[in-house]
Amino acid sequence: MDSATSEAAAAARTPLGATADNGLKIVVVGGFGVGKTTLVRSVSEIRPLNTEETMTRAGEHVDDISEIQDKKATTVAFDFGRITLDARNVLYLFGAPGQERFWFLWDRLFSGTLGAVVLVDTRRIDDSWYAIDRLEHHGTPFIVACNDFGGPAHAPSRIRDALDLDPHVPLLDCDARSRASGKQVLITLVEHVRNTYSNAYSDTHASHAPVREQELTP
Q1: Rounded percentage of the chain residues whose pLDDT exceeds 70
Q2: Does residue 150 or residue 148 have the better pLDDT?
Q3: What's the predicted TM-score (pTM) here?
Q4: Are 105 and 78 in contact (CB under 8 A)?
Q5: Which end of the chain is more exposed for a tag (fewer CB within 10 A), N or C?
Q6: Strand-strand pairing, 171-174 and 79-84
Q7: Which residues does residue 74 pair with via DSSP β-bridges, in sequence order?
Q8: How many other C-beta atoms can be found within 10 angstroms of the C-beta atom of residue 31?
Q9: 7: phi then psi, degrees, rounded to nearest 5
Q10: pLDDT of residue 103
């Protein structure tokens, strides 16, 4: 009886398969204190790996905490979580550190990335420019999600203008603390990535399509 109970308990603690055919890498990026660690925690089906360290007074002269004075810990490498899509596909989530002194890690973290979420705090929207610039530089599809910090709402058009955001980039509101909201962010990203690559595939094949004789007739 005890053995059966132990086996059942072990099975309950192992919700994931050992292998998957396709591991799809997603990066959550944005400025300092925008909620990247919170988003990864809220949607991950495993206990997320994180590299948070307690913030000290020494960091007050390095990181701008004027808008996030309640923040007690910060990511110094990256956060990691996982979501199973089906028996063959999983999403691997990487939350990037937000402080400017760790931005040198971003280019390596973007390598092999399927797509990215740029998490934005509309009170400090300037902090998002660098993330968007680097993703555009790498040609990585991304969406922008405005995390809810309880401040005044901003019209999407104003946020797009402030970020100089291309019209095709999805923009949505979210609450990083909510699993349902976080899942909707990832669904939006996956759909955007699929559409981006589908359109690129269609354009490539259209440009290489054979020219019929009648198309050359004046």
Answers
A1: 67
A2: 148
A3: 0.72
A4: yes
A5: C
A6: unpaired
A7: 53
A8: 24
A9: -65, -40
A10: 66
pLDDT at 77: 53
Angle at alpha carbon of residue 62, lines to 136 and 147, rounded to 5°: 50
- Position 101 scores a pLDDT of 64
Residue pair 79/102 in contact (Cβ under 8 Å)? The answer is no
pLDDT score for 186? 95
Residue found by looking up tokens 């913030």 in the block: 55
Q: What are phi and psi of 119, to 5 degrees?
A: -90, 130
Beta sheet of 115-120, edge-to-edge order: 79-84, 89-95, 22-30, 115-120, 142-147, 171-174
**Residue positions counted in the chain:** 218
Please give the radius of gyration of the chain, using alpha carbons only, rounded to the nearest integer: 21
Dist CA 119 CA 17 (whole Å): 30
Residue reference for tokens 């996982």: 82
Give dist(CA 2, CA 105) in Å, integer. Answer: 48
Go through 135-166 and write b for each residue having 16 or more CB atoms within 10 A of its CB, e for each that does not: beeeebbbbbbbbbbeeeeeeeeebeeebebe
Beta-sheet strands, E only, within 52-170? 52-54, 73-75, 79-84, 89-95, 115-120, 142-147
Gap between the Cα atoms of 106 and 78, Å rounded: 10
